[in-house]
Write a structure and sequence with these properties.
The protein has helices at residues 23-34, 51-54, 60-71, 87-107, 137-149, 165-171, 219-237, 263-280, 295-312; strands at residues 3-5, 42-43, 74-78, 81-84, 112-115, 154-158, 177-184, 208-213, 241-246, 285-289. It contains nine helices and ten strands. Helix content is 39%, strand content 15%. The strands form two sheets. An eight-stranded parallel beta sheet has the order 2-1-5-10-9-6-7-8, with helices on both faces. The chain has a two-stranded antiparallel ribbon with strand order 3-4.
Amino acid sequence: MTLLYQDALFLRHETGAHPEKPARLRSILSRLEKADLVKDCVAGTFRPLTEDTVAQVHAPAQIVRAKQVAAHGGGHLDSDTVVSAESFKVALAAAGACVAAVDAVVKGNDRNALCLVRPPGHHATQSTSMGFCLFNNIALAARHAHKAHDLTRILIVDWDVHHGNGTQDIFYEDPTVMFFSIHRYGNGFYPGTGAVDETGRGRGLGHTWNAPIRYGTSRKEYQAHFTNVLEKAADKIKPELVLVSAGFDAHARDPIGSLGLETEDFVALSRQVLDVARTHAHGRLVSCLEGGYDLHALAESVEVHLRELLTAMN
C-alpha cells in the first residue's frame, strides 16, 4: 500500500495571512477523507530530525537563525519566509517525515509514499532559508538515501511551478543525484534561476536538467517538455530511488504561479514518474508536498496524485 505521512503538528507552523498557511493541509486532508482514500493508505511514522542531521545539508548558522527567530516568538527569515514560535520544531518534523519515508520504501514492502508536510523545502539552499522554506526536505531525504542506504543513483523530479533553486544548489556538484526541474521562467518570475544551461558543475556536470517554461505555453507542449527531459534524465542515471518535489502551483487556478495546467495534467505527470520508478527503481518513489495555493485546486490535484500512487501498488 501507499504510505501516507501526515500529522497535526504540521498545522502549527502558523503564518497568518501568508499563502503558505495551515488551511492548505486542512483542505487536502478533508478532500482525501471525503474521497475515502486515507483508509487505503498505511500511516507512516517518523521522528523529527536532529539539528546535527539537518547540518548534513544546511549551514549551522542557517539552522541557528531559524531556531532563534522561533524562540523569540517568530518573525521573518526573509521577506517571504514567515516563522512562528513552533515553526522550527515543525520544520524538523517535516524533514523527518520525508527521511522516514525513504527508509520505509527502501527497506519495507510498501514501495511508494506521499508526505503531506509543511513548511515546503525546495527553495532552501545550503546556507539560506527562503521562498517559504526553512530546510530542504527533499534534499535531506536524498542525502539520507545516500548516507544510510548507499544509494548512488537518485532522481529528484520537481514539478512545482517555481524552480527548485535550493535543491539545485545543494546537489550542483553531486553525481549521485540527478535533479530535474520543470518550472515557469522569464519576466522576473521567482526565483529567477533554472535556465536550460544550468547543468551542474565539476563531478556533478550533466546531473542537473532544467526545463524552463514560458507563461502561455500550451498544456500539450508542457507535457511534451516534461516527457522529453524526464526520459533523458532517467535513462542517464537509471535511478535506484525517485523523489518528487510535488508542487501543484502550476495549476491554472493558482494565485501565485500558474502555467495553465488542469487537475488531470497531474495524473499524467504522476504516471510518468511512477513508470520511471517501476522501470529503474523497483517502484520506489517518495513524493513530498511543495507549493500549491488555491485550496480547491491543490486538494483536487493531490487527490489525483494519491490515486495514481495507490494504483501503482495494485
